[in-house]
Amino acid sequence: KFFVAHFGPEVLRDNRDFCIFAFEPNPIHVARHEEMRSAYSAMGWRYHFFPAGVGDKNDGKLTFYDIGDELGFTTILKRSCIENKCPQHQVPV
Q1: Is the CB of residue 24 less than 8 Å from the CB of residue 33?
Q2: What is the mean pLDDT of each run of 10 residues along the chain (93 residues)?
Q3: Which long-range contacts (CB under 8 A, 24 or more apart) does 53-56 make?
Q4: DSSP string, the chain
Q5: Model's pTM, two decimal places?
Q6: Which of 1, 28, 47, 79 has the most crowded Cβ, counting Cβ within 10 A?
Q7: What does the alpha-carbon distance between residue 11 and residue 20 come to, in Å, rounded to a whole number?
């Protein structure tokens, strides 16, 4: 509905006019973005995925902690990670 309302019916659109930029620093989502890139590419869309965050951190990196639950990762250092030494993943910001 959104695309029809803002960009018109699909038969009148040229999908090459669309360009998607996705910024996702969480490493657990990389495979999904690669799938989406392939799917959008097959429709003629340009999908650019950047496995990085966007922010104002001075050190240029963001730490994700692998907490091993259904969410997978968090940027918040939890007590369980301190006690169990959760794996850390550094991603560029």
Answers
A1: yes
A2: 85 85 84 92 89 73 79 78 81 77
A3: 53/23, 53/25, 53/91, 53/92, 53/93, 54/23, 54/93, 55/93
A4: -HHHHHH--GGG--GGG-EEEEE---GGGHHHHHHHHHHHHHTT-EEEEE-S--S--TTSEEEEEE--SSS-EESS--HHHHHHT--EEEEE-
A5: 0.59
A6: 47
A7: 20
Tokens standing for residue 90: 């550094």
Residue 32 vs residues 22, 49, 62, 64, 87: alpha-carbon distances, Å = 11, 10, 20, 18, 21
Torsions phi, psi for 24 (to 5 deg): -140, 105
Rounded Cα distance between 85 and 61, Å, is 20
Which of 65, 69, 70, 62 lies closest to 81, judged by CA?
65
Phi, psi of 70, rounded to the nearest 5 degrees? -65, -20
